Amino acid sequence: MGRENGNRRTRFLKGRALAAALMTTAAATGLAVVTAQQAMAQEQRRDFSIPAGPLGPALARFGQQAMLQVTYSPSVASGKNTAGVSGSMSPEEAISRLLAGSGLAYSFPNAATVAISAATATVGPEGDSTLLQTITLRGTGLLGPTDGYIASGAYTATKTETPLIEVPQVVNVITRDQIEAQGSQSVTQATRYAPGVVPGFGDSDSRNDVLQSRGFFMRQNLNGSRLPYGAYSSAFLKIEPYGLERIDVLKGPSSVMYGQNLPGGLIDLTTKRPTPDPHREIAVETGNHGRLQGMFDFSGPLGGDERFQYRLTGLSRDADGRIDFGYERRDFIAPAFTWQPNETTSLTVFGHYQRDETISDYVALPAAGTLLPNPNGELPVTLYPGEPGHDGYEREQSSIGYDFRHEFANGWRLRQNLQVNSVDVDTKATPTAFLDPTQRYATRVATRGLAAADTVTIDTNIQGEFTTGGVTHNLLLGFDYLRLKDSYRFASNLYPGQFDLFDPVYGVTPPELIDRIDYRMKRSQVGVYVQDQMRWNDWIVTASLRGDRVRADSSEAMQGAQFSYRDTALTGRIGAVYLMENGFAPFFSYSTSFDPVDGVTPQGGPLKPMEGEQIEAGVKYESADGSRMLSLSTYQITQQNITAPNPDPVQGGFLQTGEARVRGFELEGKAELTPQLSLIASYAYTDSKVTKTNGGTEYLAGNELIMVPDHQAALWLDYGFQAGPLQGLNLAGGVRYMGKSFGDAQNTVEVGGQTLLDAAVSYDFGSRNPRYEGLTLRVTGNNLLDKEYVGYCQSLQQCFYGQGRTLAATLKYQW
């Protein structure tokens, strides 16, 4: 508690200094950015090179070359083609030529947006006339920044600019606006309203974002690049949500696009990129548990030249924790730079550096006193059973990469993405190991883990459209490479004596630690993939195939063990979507995944990769104006070749006959019901089952998988006053429900369900007084009633309380 009370004034002064520095930086850059904005407004003619072909991809290229946001409903452009456009002309002339003969019209609702309109022929009293039905899609295109909660497209699923309604697989998108509106302070919090996504180890861990979907863990990509993942789950990057533009949650097997992966899917995190329009933002935030945070985000052209664009995002945070002695510190900086010498070529270089220090609220306590009764009473949620003089978690992480794009004269497009991700973790902890018969005293263990990992990824693909007969093809050919290095060293020893959980005494000298684990691993993957998105009338068939060659070498020095792995894998996806005129789109798909496994069989041979397959069917809906989107899907996933240690200690090795099956259905709806009222609703039913077991674990057959709730539901409503005395005020609230689950494979430790409430209030000061334009205040609260619940149990010795109430007030100024 000494740190909690002793450093508050120091943190307050640091926060004020940070806020002052941010204001000074903003003022110094303001004049240059305004000048750049005026220069951009005078630009009229551009060079266009858009080949003939399907209208949808042509509109996407027009938006890139015109530096405009193109808004339209995918169903409006479905089945339509364009003769293309080439040469130097104004954006208005280019879009007019592009839409010639399509029966569509256009309008410019503002200087940065062109809206496509569907023309409806009517007959008036004076004869034939034409009325235009304006399309005002709330999202701002298929990729990148999006206004509101609804994104119309995602690159993640197909590595092409495909509208979500045309993807034969479910993708849940969390936009920048949703992250801010719900006050999400981590990726885990940002995905709370996505159906079927649950925290793999509970929701109170401020160290890592470990998520599950459809019964299985999910891996994470950053800008399409695989983040490190180790056998001991210790070296993870934790991405700061303030630096993100969007979060794409791809459900189900995704190996055909990204190689080795788990069948639950993956999460792709897209960082903020440079913008052609100036963007300047500073903010300060405070909250409960002594939270103090300063942020800034600047972007725009350099010197008024659109060929050179920059973005710089930063954050500094200092906070206490819910538990005694808890704290969290973070420093984050993310620069990015784009060079676009012409309309067909661009190079964006981006990166980030982040440093974290914490004693997390995620602490292990016995089930007796948390989940189960204890004769001595209930263990408080603030109890810290560790040793504050010894414990702590430190992480240093970074990434750097580039995204290169070029469009050839024949319309084919080349893209290459290279990224290097690195992380080092030093964690010291004092978990409880045993509880005495009185259930009052615990035996503690002093531990230290040193983890390091890095990945290097490079992905090169070429994409083009052509027509054979009546079928239009969007062909993607690609090659990627992944190299992963991971290491983990672990030491531990028992503390002398016992620890009184109900009258804790701290200051015990930690014992000398004994080395337990010394693990090293190197893995490489080379993949070649091909995808064809075939369009015939209102049918879209997506067929994908991929071949991988994987090589891995690992060692465990303490046991003198070495493992080598060489294998190839073939994965694929086949799916179909039918676009109906009323906005509905039934779909069906089959996809597979593989994930290499370290170790050897009892006979000394290599283990097979774990293999997953999914069958999914459902229907999607998108309204003509893009203000309503719905997806309903049902699926079955099977994971094969699950391993377990050989129960025969003489023979050793791993058995590999386990299998798990998950069935369920999911519903997600996002809608702007009126100009003032928005909605997010989701529901997931998940039925998991162990269908085959390894030798010695037959008793697990028929059990549920760990941390897979049967039911999950969420509802979020957002209402903004646009007129009257409350103009500028925005009220939002949500409710989340998660059903029961089991914390152990034996299904003996049941974690009960819980219902939690969230809320948010914001006010735009400039809505009624132009003098304060750009100034907003937002107050958010999660688990508003501060409900106490157990979020996860690993065993009867280790249970973890769920996240308590978090309150945050953010004052932001944009200009």
TrEMBL record:
<keyword id="KW-0406">Ion transport</keyword>
<keyword id="KW-0798">TonB box</keyword>
<dbReference type="InterPro" id="IPR039426">
    <property type="entry name" value="TonB-dep_rcpt-like"/>
</dbReference>
<comment type="similarity">
    <text>Belongs to the TonB-dependent receptor family.</text>
</comment>
<dbReference type="Pfam" id="PF07715">
    <property type="entry name" value="Plug"/>
</dbReference>
<keyword id="KW-0812">Transmembrane</keyword>
<dbReference type="GO" id="GO:0038023">
    <property type="term" value="F:signaling receptor activity"/>
</dbReference>
<keyword id="KW-0408">Iron</keyword>
<keyword id="KW-0472">Membrane</keyword>
<dbReference type="InterPro" id="IPR036942">
    <property type="entry name" value="Beta-barrel_TonB_sf"/>
</dbReference>
<dbReference type="InterPro" id="IPR012910">
    <property type="entry name" value="Plug_dom"/>
</dbReference>
<dbReference type="InterPro" id="IPR037066">
    <property type="entry name" value="Plug_dom_sf"/>
</dbReference>
<dbReference type="Pfam" id="PF00593">
    <property type="entry name" value="TonB_dep_Rec_b-barrel"/>
</dbReference>
<dbReference type="InterPro" id="IPR000531">
    <property type="entry name" value="Beta-barrel_TonB"/>
</dbReference>
<keyword id="KW-0998">Cell outer membrane</keyword>
<dbReference type="InterPro" id="IPR011662">
    <property type="entry name" value="Secretin/TonB_short_N"/>
</dbReference>
<feature type="signal peptide">
    <location>
        <begin position="1"/>
        <end position="41"/>
    </location>
</feature>
<dbReference type="Pfam" id="PF07660">
    <property type="entry name" value="STN"/>
</dbReference>
<keyword id="KW-0732">Signal</keyword>
<keyword id="KW-0675">Receptor</keyword>
<dbReference type="GO" id="GO:0015891">
    <property type="term" value="P:siderophore transport"/>
</dbReference>
<keyword id="KW-0813">Transport</keyword>
<keyword id="KW-0410">Iron transport</keyword>
<dbReference type="GO" id="GO:0009279">
    <property type="term" value="C:cell outer membrane"/>
</dbReference>
<dbReference type="InterPro" id="IPR010105">
    <property type="entry name" value="TonB_sidphr_rcpt"/>
</dbReference>
<protein>
    <submittedName>
        <fullName>TonB-dependent siderophore receptor</fullName>
    </submittedName>
</protein>
<dbReference type="GO" id="GO:0015344">
    <property type="term" value="F:siderophore uptake transmembrane transporter activity"/>
</dbReference>
<keyword id="KW-1134">Transmembrane beta strand</keyword>
<feature type="domain" description="Secretin/TonB short N-terminal">
    <location>
        <begin position="68"/>
        <end position="119"/>
    </location>
</feature>
